[in-house]
């Protein structure tokens, strides 16, 4: 950037318990460029296939229900399997990034995917998994 003045700012706000939006901007005085990006994140209960599909009929090892009334009403999902979807748009580079994360078993198995879409270049799709094999 050539030692010029650079000014930047960002803001990320939770709109509801599950939805957050934000953005960032940066000005580079050396070449007069302005860059910005926008982010949206949404968290939801992960269907397990064992019950109704809303994450509330799952049982943990003690037999207690993992999903509670707060999770079904849009509250905290930290104790139950959850998923989130995140989208980032960078108009200056014409790039869209999409991310998906699914907690299959809390503190044990997590799956994820990332898709980078660049209209003028090649796009990329990546899948990943995390397994914590400790006892």
Protein described:
This protein has one helix spanning 69-72; strands spanning 6-14, 19-28, 33-45, 82-90, 95-105, 109-117, 124-131. 3% of the residues lie in helices and 51% in strands. The protein is elongated. The model is unreliable at 51-73 (pLDDT under 50). With 135 residues, the chain is mostly beta strands. The longest helix has 4 residues, at 69-72.
Give the tags:
135 residues, mainly beta, seven-stranded antiparallel β-sheet, 1 helix, 3% helix, elongated
Task: Provide a concise account of the structure shown.
With 135 residues, this protein is mostly beta strands.
Please write out the topology.
Blueprint (H helix, E strand, L loop, with lengths): L5 E9 L4 E10 L4 E13 L23 H4 L9 E9 L4 E11 L3 E9 L6 E8 L4
In spatial order, strands of the major sheet run: 1-2-3-4-5-6-7
Sketch the major β-sheet: 7 strands, antiparallel
Which geometry do the CA atoms define?
A: elongated
The helix/strand class is mainly beta
> How far apart are the termini?
49 Å
Number of helices in the DSSP assignment: 1
């Amino acid at each position: 950037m050539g030692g010029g003045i650079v000014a930047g700012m960002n803001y990320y706000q939770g709109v509801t318990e599950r939805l957050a939006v934000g953005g960032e901007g940066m000005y580079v005085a050396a070449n007069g460029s302005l860059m910005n990006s926008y982010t949206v994140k949404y968290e939801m209960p992960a269907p397990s296939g064992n019950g109704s599909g809303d994450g509330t009929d799952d049982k943990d090892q003690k037999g207690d229900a993992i999903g509670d009334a707060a999770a079904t009403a849009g509250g905290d999902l930290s104790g139950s399997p959850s998923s989130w979807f995140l989208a980032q748009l960078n108009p200056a580079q014409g790039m869209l990034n999409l991310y998906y994360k699914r907690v299959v078993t809390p503190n044990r198995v997590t799956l994820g995917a990332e898709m980078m879409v660049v209209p003028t270049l090649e796009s990329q799709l990546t899948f990943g998994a995390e397994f914590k094999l400790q006892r």
